[in-house]
Design the sequence.
C-alpha cells in the first residue's frame, strides 16, 4: 500500500502520468506538477487558500466571452506572456525585430487596403503617418509582406470596447510591393487601462498597480518563408512607458512622431520603423494569444 506524504506524492503523480504518448506534453505536464507541488509546499498552502485559488480561476473562466479572454489577460499581468515572447525570440535562427504582446484585442479578417489609407474612420485629432520597410535579417526588402495593425482611439479604447464588436475601426492590413515599404495614416493612440472590471482587474487593484499600458500600435508582420512577427510600437513620451502593466515594452520598440522630410505623406508628423523578419523554422507560429472570437469558437 502507498503511504504518501507531501513530498513523495510528487514522484507518484509523475509516475502515474508516465504513459502520456506525446513526449513534449509529458515534459510540460511533469514540470507543471513538480512546480505546482513545490509551490504549495513553499507557501504551506492551506485548504482555505487552495479553494480561494480555485474560486479565482473559476471567476476568470466565467469572465471569458467571445470578445474577452480573461485567461490571456491573467497571463499578461503575471508576466507569463512576456516570458513566452522572450523565449520565442531567443529560439529564432536569426535575429529579427523584437516581439511584444498580441494582447486580447486582435481581430482577424481586416481587409487589405491601399498603402497610405487612414485606418481611423473619423479622426478627431492630428493625423500622423507610420512608415518603414519590411526586410529580412540581411536588410533586403520583402515584397508581398503582410502587415496588420490595430490600436486604440485617441480616447484610449479599442473598437471592441467602443462598438461592442459590431464593426471594426482603427485596424488596417497592408501588403508591400517590391520595395518592402509600408505606410498608413492614423492618429496617436491614447494609453489605456487593461480591462479592470473582472477578476484579473480586481487582483491588479489589490496589488496596488495602476493597470495602465503606454500608448502603442500593435503590428503583426508576416512574409512567405519568414517567422511571423507579433510586436507593437510604443510612444516613448507616454507617462507609463516604464511601468507597463503587462511588460510589453522594450527599448528597441520605442518610437516618436516627428517632422520627417523622408515621410511618404508630407505635412504629417511621422513615426518611422523598419521591421526585420527572421527566416521561419518549420511549423512554428509567433503568436502569443489569438483572436478572442476564434478562441471561443475553437472551444465549442
Ligand atoms: C493590449 O495591448 O491590447 C493589451 C495587452 C495585454 C492586456 C491588455 C491589453
Ligand atoms: Fe494594446
Sequence:
Amino acid at each position: 500500500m502507498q503511504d504518501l506524504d507531501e513530498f513523495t506524492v510528487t514522484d507518484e503523480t509523475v509516475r502515474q502520468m508516465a504513459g502520456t504518448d506525446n513526449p513534449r506534453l509529458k515534459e510540460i505536464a511533469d514540470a507543471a506538477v513538480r512546480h505546482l507541488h513545490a509551490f504549495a509546499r513553499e507557501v504551506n498552502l492551506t485548504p482555505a487558500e487552495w479553494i480561494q485559488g480555485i474560486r479565482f480561476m473559476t471567476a476568470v473562466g466565467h469572465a471569458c466571452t467571445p470578445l474577452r479572454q480573461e485567461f490571456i489577460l491573467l497571463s499578461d499581468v503575471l508576466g507569463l506572456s512576456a516570458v513566452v515572447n522572450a523565449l520565442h525570440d531567443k529560439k529564432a535562427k536569426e535575429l529579427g525585430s523584437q516581439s511584444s504582446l498580441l494582447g486580447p484585442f486582435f481581430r482577424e479578417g481586416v481587409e487589405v487596403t491601399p498603402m497610405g489609407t487612414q485606418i481611423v474612420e473619423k479622426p478627431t485629432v492630428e493625423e500622423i503617418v507610420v512608415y518603414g520597410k519590411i526586410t529580412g535579417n540581411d536588410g533586403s526588402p520583402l515584397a508581398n509582406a503582410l502587415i496588420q495593425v490595430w490600436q486604440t482611439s485617441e480616447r484610449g479604447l479599442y473598437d471592441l470596447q467602443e462598438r461592442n464588436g459590431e464593426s471594426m475601426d482603427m485596424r488596417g492590413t497592408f501588403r508591400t510591393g517590391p520595395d518592402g515599404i509600408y505606410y498608413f495614416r492614423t492618429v496617436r493612440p491614447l494609453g489605456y487601462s487593461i480591462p479592470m472590471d473582472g477578476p484579473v482587474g480586481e487582483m491588479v487593484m489589490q496589488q496596488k498597480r495602476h493597470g495602465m499600458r503606454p500608448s502603442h500600435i500593435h503590428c503583426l508582420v508576416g512574409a512567405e518563408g519568414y517567422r511571423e512577427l507579433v510586436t507593437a510600437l510604443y510612444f516613448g513620451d507616454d507617462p507609463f512607458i516604464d511601468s507597463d502593466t503587462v511588460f510589453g515594452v522594450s527599448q528597441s520598440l520605442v518610437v516618436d512622431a516627428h517632422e520627417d522630410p523622408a515621410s511618404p505623406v508630407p505635412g504629417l508628423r511621422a513615426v518611422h520603423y523598419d521591421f526585420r523578419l527572421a527566416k521561419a523554422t518549420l511549423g512554428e507560429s509567433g503568436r502569443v494569444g489569438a483572436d478572442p472570437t476564434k478562441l471561443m469558437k475553437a472551444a465549442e
About this structure: The pocket of fe (iii) ion (ligand 2) is lined by residues 103, 105, 213, 216, 218 (CB under 6 Å). The chain has a mean pLDDT of 93. The chain has two domains: 8-45, 70-299. The two ends are 42 Å apart (CA to CA).
